[in-house]
Task: structure prediction
Amino acid sequence: MYKAPRGTTDILPQEQPYWELVRQKIVAICQLYGYSRIDTPIFEDARLFARSIGEETDIVEKEMYVFQDRGGDRMTLRPEGTAPVCRAYVEHGMHNLPQPVKLYYIGPAFRYERPQAGRRRQHYQFGYEAIGDADPALDAEVIDMAWQLYTSLGLSHLQLLLNSIGCRECRPKYLAKLKEYYRDLAGQLCADCQQRLVRNPLRLLDCKRPSCQRAARHAPRSADHLCAACLEHFQQLQRYLGLLGLPYKLDHRLVRGLDYYTRTVFEIQPRGVSGAQSTLGGGGRYDDLIAELGGKPTPAVGLATGMERIVLNLKKQKLPVPQPPPATIWVAHVGDAAKAEAIGLTAQLRRAGVAALMGMGGRSLKAQLRQANALGVSQAIIIGEEEVARGELTLRDMVAGQQQRVPRSEILSVLKGRHLGTDDI
Ligand code: HAM
Result:
């Protein structure tokens, strides 16, 4: 027996209403905030991610699906969407457009992680990037948009965590301080963090192991070591969040798992739940990334959120989702001539905009009506030998159980009279 690969999930029809609702809200919110959709390839040149997310990150070191294609090129199934969007921005000369360019995407991303609820090897991300402006008002707007998405879905008890990790001016000095702080604590760190101390000290702050968390308790804070311009940006952002009525909590240990961030970083989490897989959405500013990928220096900010995690939280909070309507009409038939008639009629109904199903496989009339009932269909049309001979149809109300004979030629106007199907019948 084959099974879906570990860490991947079939999204079955009964799950789809949740996903459909989330997608609808996403499209509506993107329109409100002025974002246009972009779709980038599922795989990209492996160097794109190593260069942007960073060689020393868990994603690049341990989690990427890398493969060599038949032409010998090293490709990666995308682990996230920011780097591909920036690659597209540069490749298509989008710096010539009015700035900021606002782009959003929905699609699968791949990370070889230890699977658990809300942490999949293939997950779907909704992300959006505002490229071409350094204004902290844009950071605030990006955060506000995620907040509005979640609340418009009915999610509550959320918290916004915020930090600033500085820029290439002030961060090196801060990292030196951090290394100095950790010098005497190295013995308490896990093996990974021993490496991080040398290669990527910022990441020491978000290690989830208790001994590393203890060691990080009194670590110097990036927000206390910002240069004047970064401090001003961070203060303005907080002021704007206040203006938008968005409550936030400063989290000095929030550094994010990707290396391209500068200044602002943030995450939105359900309150009272911790752990990496609880984060609903996260993002930040990445003012150096476009230049790193070969474009002109261009500031940018964005956020991504896992669709699975949104759905998980909708279910946890028992929020209702609209169900798709069942088909309107079931065309039941008995005998060969009736079947031929049913095929034509069902097609005619569908072409007139009425959602119609017909019985398949030569089942008895009783079995066909039972199936229609189980599917929640409200009306059935029954065609038997007698109906064929007389040029009539039997219309049955499946709820009331009442039946009436209708001339074949009048069926569409009768249905229209009952407000079944679209107006153009
Ligand atoms: P990220 O924090 O790595 O950021 O992922 C964003 C969101 O995707 C997470 O908050 C989570 O909801 C979801 N997610 C990530 N990994 C998984 C997984 N294995 N299973 C299920 N859900 C997952 C980024 O990817 C950045 N590109 C965000 C960004 C956009 N920064 C700026 N612009």
